[in-house]
Amino acid sequence: MLSRFPHLRQDFAASLVVFLVAVPLCLGVAVASGVPAELGLVTGIVGGLVTGLMRGSSIQVSGPAAGMTVLVFEAVHEFGLPALGVIVLLAGALQIALGALGWGRWFRAISVSVVEGMLAGIGLVIIAGQLYAAAGVEAPASGLDKITGLPGAVVEVAGSGSALVSLAVGAGTIAVIVLWQRLPKRVRTVPGALAAVVLATAATQLFALPVATVEVAGLLDAVQPPGLDAFGKLGDVALLGTVLAFALIASAESLFSAAAVDRLHDGPRTQYDKELIAQGTGNAVCGVLGALPMTAVIVRSSANVQAGARTKASRVLHGVWLLLFAALLPAALGLIPLAALAGILVHAGWKLIPLRAVVSLWRAHRGEALILVVTAVAIVAVNMFEGVLIGLALSVAKAAWDASHIRVAVVDEGVGPVRARLSGNATFLRLPKILDTLESLPHDRPVELDLSGLHHLDHACRTALENWSERHSAMLAEPVRPPEPEPSPL
C-alpha cells in the first residue's frame, strides 16, 4: 500500500486536520447564509469527494466559503431556498464552460484591489450581521442597515438577559480562537475554531444557558434537489444576474486562492483552466443537491499545506470524514450554540478585511487603495454584485488613465525655436492637457515638436497634433518642425 501511495501517511494526517478545520466553518457559513446547517456539510463533502478527485490544484481544499455568504443570503432572501440549487447549478455550468474555453487564466488579471475590496466589504457585512446573530436578535436584510442598526441593537440587547448571555457565548468563542494561537504548538494541533465550538457547547450544556442551538433536520432531509418550479424562475433577469455573480465571484476567489496556495508549497503548480472546470463540476453537483456554492478556501488549503499534505488524497479523505460525521453524529450538531458559530464568522469576517494592505497601498499606490475602499463601501451600501462591478469599472478607468500618462516638456531659451518634447502615451484622455500646453506657446516663434519619446500615439492625438501644426505654421514664415520618423502606434 505504502509503495503505491508513498505519501499516504502524511495525507491521512493532513486530512484529519483539514476535517477539524472544516466542520465549524461549514456549519457557520451555512447558518450565516440562511440555510440549514447540514447543507454546509454537503458542500464540504462534495468539495472533497468530487472536486478533490479532479485535476487542477492538488493541494487546495474546496467547500462553502465566508466570501460567498453575503451573496447566498441575498439570493435566498430574494428567490427562496428552492431556487438556490438552480442558481448554483447554472453557475457551475458556466464555470465549466469558462474553463473549457481557456478563460481560467484570465481571472488572474482581475485587479487585486478589487478582490481585496470585495473581501473587505463581505467581511464588514459578515461582522455586522453576525453580531446580531451572536446576541440572538434578528438582523436587518441589507448590509447598510446591518451597520446603521447596530446602535439600536445595542440598546435592545442591554435590556435582555438572554441576549447578553448569548452575546457572551459569542464573545467567548472569539476570545478562545484568538488566544488559542498563543498556546504551545502541540495544543494548537487542534484547530482553534473547533476548540472554541467544543468549549462553547460544553459550557452551554453544563450551565444550561438559555441560548439558541443549531436546528437539525438530518442530512437526507436537508438535501432538497430543485424542482421544476425553481427552474421556472429562469425567466427572471435578476436571477440570471445572480448566476453570473456566483460564477464570477466564486471563480475569482478560487483562482486567487490557488495562486496564494502555490506560494506555500513546492509541489505541482495549479492548472487554472482545469481547476475552474473542477470548481464548476463541484458547484453543478452542489446545485443538483440544493446545497451551498463552493469555492477553494484559503483557510482550509493553508491548513492542508501546513499539515504536510502532498497529494489530493488529503482533501478527498477530508470529504470522507465530513460524510461520516454528518451521517453518524447528526445529534451532535443540535448541541452547538448559534452564538458560537456567529463568533467563528465574526473572526473569519475580520480576517477578510485587509487592513495592512490598505495602509501599504495608501503609501505606495493611493489610486489602488481608493479602489479597494470604494469597492468595499459599495458592497456594504448597495449589494455584492453591483459593488464588484463598481470596483471593476474603477479599476478599468484607472488603468486607462495610467496608460495614457503623458509628459510635455517645453524648453524656451528666449531666442530661436521653442522645443516641445512629448513622452509617454498620447491618447485622447490626455489630449486636453497636450493642446493646452501647445496653445500656450508663443504664436510668433517657430516650434520644434519632438515626438520621439512617445510609446503610443492614437489617432485622435495624431490628428489633433497635425491640425495644431498647420494652424501654428500658418502664422509663421518658419513652420513647426516635427522630427522624422514619428513613432508607430503600438
TrEMBL record:
Keywords on record: Membrane, Transmembrane, Transmembrane helix
Protein name listed in UniProt: SulP family inorganic anion transporter
UniProt topology in membrane: Multi-pass membrane protein
Main location class: membrane
InterPro entries the record matches: SLC26A/SulP_dom, SLC26A/SulP_fam
Transmembrane domains' residue ranges: 12-32, 79-103, 115-137, 157-180, 192-217, 237-261, 320-350, 370-397
Top-rank taxon: Bacteria
Subcellular location: Membrane
Domain SLC26A/SulP transporter: 8-375
